Amino acid sequence: MQSKWSAWNIWIFIICLIMICTTAEAATSEKSTVSLSKTSGTVVKVSSDKKTPPKAVDTKLKRLQQLLADTGFYPGEMSGVLASSTKDAIVRAQRMFKLEQTGKYDQKLVDVLAREARIRPNKYRKKLSMQATAYTSQDPGCGNLTKREHLLRRGLVAVDPKVIPLGSRLYIEGYGYAIADDIGSAIKGTKIDLAYESRSEAFNFGRKMVTVFVLD
To answer: Are 183 and 166 in contact (CB under 8 A)?
Structure first.
């Protein structure tokens, strides 16, 4: 009789150990995610506690991005982060002004762009007389993104790609430098739609004939 009770107690002890181990493993698994390796088929635990630190904002680079936008080289946001779109815009501007193509912040480029933003370009590939209207992201049927997936802002315009290829750098009299970045169902032929930040600015612009210089 005594031996039977001893065996029963041993079984209870083993079951309790199994339950404790299972509970501990479940608690540990909440802190990690399990992914299946595509190459070996093995299960790998990846910690989910690690967070990617935000990239530092460079105020000088942010200023350069604004100048690139003001002169029609950069369609993106003024983030102060050297992403691929900013590098491409820097190289494009450096190539245009015959500077060393580093793709990095360059004080010489800043100085050149600051001068460029204040003057009308004297070299262009094509000159067009176009009927211009204005729009904003708040207009009915308009979204926040352009056709080329950039946040709609002043300096980005909608064109007919058959007349002006998307991505072209432009200078528009009465508006300034711009990038052909969007399209519209009503924008056909020699019509162009200029983006503004507010509906009041767009309303004040109205509809008028403008001279558009296609720079590249």
So the answer is: yes
Tens digits of residue pLDDT in 52-96: 666 677 899 999 999 999 999 999 999 999 999 999 999 999 998
What is the distance between the alpha carbons of residues 49 and 28, in angstroms, rounded to a whole number? 12
pLDDT of residue 139 exceeding 70: yes
Spatial separation of the C-alpha atoms in residues 177 and 120, rounded to whole Å: 9
Report helix angle 84-96 to 59-70, nearest 10: 60
Q: What gap in Å lies between CA 76 and CA 37, rounded to an integer?
A: 36
Q: Are 73 and 169 in contact (CB under 8 A)?
A: yes
Domain boundaries, the chain: 59-116, 126-214
Q: Which of 101, 104, 99, 100 has its CA nearest to residue 81?
A: 104
Which CATH code is given to the segment(s) 59-116? 1.10.101
Q: In angstroms, what CA-CA distances link 58 with 55, 80, 92?
A: 9, 5, 20
Q: Kindly state which CATH superfamily the domain 126-214 is placed in.
A: RlpA-like domain (2.40.40.10)
Distance CA 117, CA 176 (A): 8
Burial of 130 (0-12, 13-18, 19+ CB in 10 A): buried
Residues ≥6 apart with Cβ < 8 Å to 150: 75, 76, 156, 181
Kindly state the tokens that stand for 114.
């600051």
| pTM for the full predicted model | 0.68
The beta-strand segments (E) located in 58-190 are 126-135, 156-158, 169-172, 176-182
